[in-house]
Write a structure and sequence with these properties.
homodimer, 413 residues, alpha/beta, Aspartate Aminotransferase, domain 1, Aspartate Aminotransferase, domain 2, 2 domains, four-stranded antiparallel β-sheet, 15 helices, globular
Chain lengths: 413, 413
């Protein structure tokens, strides 16, 4: 009865992988592993500077999480998340105009799981997403297995009509604070228009807000969920905005703690979806997150994070001016982790530029990965949070060399 | 531009949820929250006894994970898992006949995510699963969103032909060690037949093994992946078995650490799937898991776990004999966490019995939830790991009272 080892057995045909596997890109994986290439400067990812991690405090929180709450954190927890953490998230985001309870809150295994769960509860094969364009690469990754259709929302296009843009969509998706990849802050009038359209059409409006605390200039604008609550101020939130938060950019991505704040009916649906995805998020990391909120650690570390990243944003923009002002344009972002650079030459193709950049020792994110159809080839996303100013200057010097090499290869072809 | 608060806006129709949401059950959630009902004895779940958690050791591991490896555990980790943990898992499962490297290993956010990822890479809408029947409820939950077809494998049915049973399936699924829900050990001849069929047909064969270390009598049988490796002993594993392990039953479910061991091509596919599900598992809990493996803690605590659960298994079977031998039959399981009891009366419906049981203060898992079509109504799964002997006796006393009340209500109807 031992399996036959005949050649035919060894070469038996495996069932095909699911269809979406043939349509995916591997670029996020490349970015995550690019850190291992010696000498490469990585401005592709959205990585924090590890020197900012409050290691000693988190190590103490980790010990106490297990020592003081063993049954809670070592056993199976509620799918929705630990009740005190849900309460803390409700308090953090809530206000008299936006009263929130734990029924409005689901803890997720960081932001990526939030995106996956939203797709899981709202998308049948081919369902329509109205997504802010260009779109966060990770959101495209999360939704690709459900083979959605995409309608691009170009929020700053003249005559943009959100109500028409939302028609027929299962949900709309936006990153209003320092959008990934463009770093742009969505203005108040557009925020109001998006929320009004969601209310009028009934469309769910996903507000993805990983960067909200990384604000370098000027004042914060109201969140979409706050504007939505103004339609029924003081009532328990039951509106169309699905707000997503995370600790990944605010303290440490390795905790894998995020949250969704939404109408209770949406939280119930997402909970059912999470049940079959990972049953519950680790109680250990939930308790660490709760301690970081309750002790005020998040507020303590914020000024240093903002100061460091502001300095690096300025350094990156200075380096762009010094080395690349003749071939790229960009805006100085008021927050977040990225500068979005567009080639002045409409024929410059950043997908084709990337191999030259890698050869020159720099990895950026080409704009094609932020479009569901890979259509946008003229831009790039450049991260400024991971590297110090002198490295960012060297990175832009290398990028300028890569552009020269790319042009030379095109001229020769 | 503030959203209108007219009645029509407040009642705008939301897009429909995805279709699978209408077909799901909420029973796992009921089990997980049943712990909160005062006085209820919960024999429904698969919960460990928290008194067995090695709290002090894990608290120390948690602190050291953060203090000694801050950049690694607080930053984004590789999607596949931390390299030393993948190596440790390869060493643990590997042998001279089954050489494994980290290319064979993916770390998952516990066993449930493993099931979700396998469905994600292998199932298009309506894809066929050949699953050991009755089937683990959580696997049905994980795959339901992809609307698969199920073919039930009744492994102990006379004339069972695995090759015919696998035909056309995207994958086969079995829990050979103390199957959930039946507690049954799949015998060696059937293991060999399953593996041979997988090799001949090319079908992926998922070996889900959460209970393998909870062995109370007799000797362990070889794993399916070990039998599979015998076709090409000593070569890097590239066969059809997809082995799933977890620390949930062996030390603590709250760590949410599991793993998949399989051919490198399958690990690569699953890694792409995990990228869009949660990007990576927390480095904090991965480092705790690694410490538990490297320090020998898992082996240290195993004898006490096995001794306690063996005693409880015996206590449950004695209580069944004392209170329910006239209306149920069962086998004494040689391992795992469950006894599977079948009603002698073919018309007894355990779905209909459950409300009487809850009224009597006991919660069990009705057999219908372990069938993709909800078809099996005559059995129940009873957990023996969470409660001490006297509570198990009281639980079976209550169950007998519930059966009497159920019968009286049927007679009256």
């Amino acid at each position: 009865m031992v399996p036959s080892s005949s050649p035919s057995a060894a070469t038996a045909t495996r069932p095909a992988f699911a269809r979406w596997m043939g349509t995916t890109n591997q670029i996020t994986r490349t970015f995550l592993s690019a850190g291992a290439i010696p000498g490469l400067i990585n401005v592709a990812g959205g990585l924090p500077d590890p020197s900012l991690f409050p290691t000693d405090r988190l190590a103490a929180f980790a010990r106490r999480a297990v020592a003081e709450h063993p049954d809670e954190v070592l056993g199976y927890g509620p799918i929705e998340g630990l009740a005190p953490l849900r309460d803390a998230i409700a308090r953090r985001l809530g206000s008299p105009a936006l009263p929130l309870t734990r029924a409005n809150v689901l803890v997720t295994t960081a932001g990526m799981q939030g995106l996956d769960l939203i797709g899981k509860v709202l998308l049948d094969e081919g369902g329509l997403i109205a997504g802010q364009s260009p779109t966060y690469l990770g959101a495209l990754d999360a939704w690709r297995p459900r083979s959605p259709s995409f309608r691009n929302l170009v929020l700053d296009e003249p005559g943009f009509d959100p109500e028409r843009a939302f028609a027929g969509a299962q949900f709309a998706y936006a990153v209003p604070n320092f959008s990934n990849p463009t770093g742009r802050l969505v203005d108040l009038a557009t925020r109001r228009a998006l929320v009004a359209a969601a209310h009028r059409t009934g469309t769910w409006l996903v507000e993805d807000d990983p960067y909200g605390t990384l604000h370098y200039d000027g004042a914060a604008l109201p969140r979409l969920i706050e504007l939505s609550a103004q339609t029924a101020p003081g009532e328990p939130y039951a509106g169309p905005v699905i707000y997503m938060g995370t600790l990944s950019k605010e303290i440490a991505p390795g905790l894998r703690i995020g949250w969704i704040v939404a109408a209770p009916e949406m939280i119930e649906a997402l909970t059912l979806a999470k049940q079959g995805s990972d049953l519950c998020t680790s109680g250990v990391t939930q308790r660490i997150a709760l301690a970081a909120m309750e002790t005020g650690l998040l507020e303590e570390i914020r000024p240093a994070i903002v100061a460091l990243y502001r300095e690096r944003r300025d350094a990156l923009c200075a380096a762009l001016s010094a080395h690349l002002s003749d071939c790229f344009t960009w805006e100085v972002p008021v927050g977040g982790m990225f500068v979005w650079a567009l080639a002045k030459d409409p024929d410059l193709d950043t997908d084709a530029l990337l191999p030259h950049a890698l050869a020159a020792g720099i990895c950026f994110s080409p704009s094609s990965v932020f479009d569901a159809r890979g259509a946008n080839r003229r831009g790039m996303r450049i991260n400024f949070t991971l590297n110090p100013p002198e490295t960012l200057d060297e990175a832009m010097r290398r990028l300028a060399a890569a552009v020269a090499a790319y042009r030379a290869s095109r001229a020769a072809a």
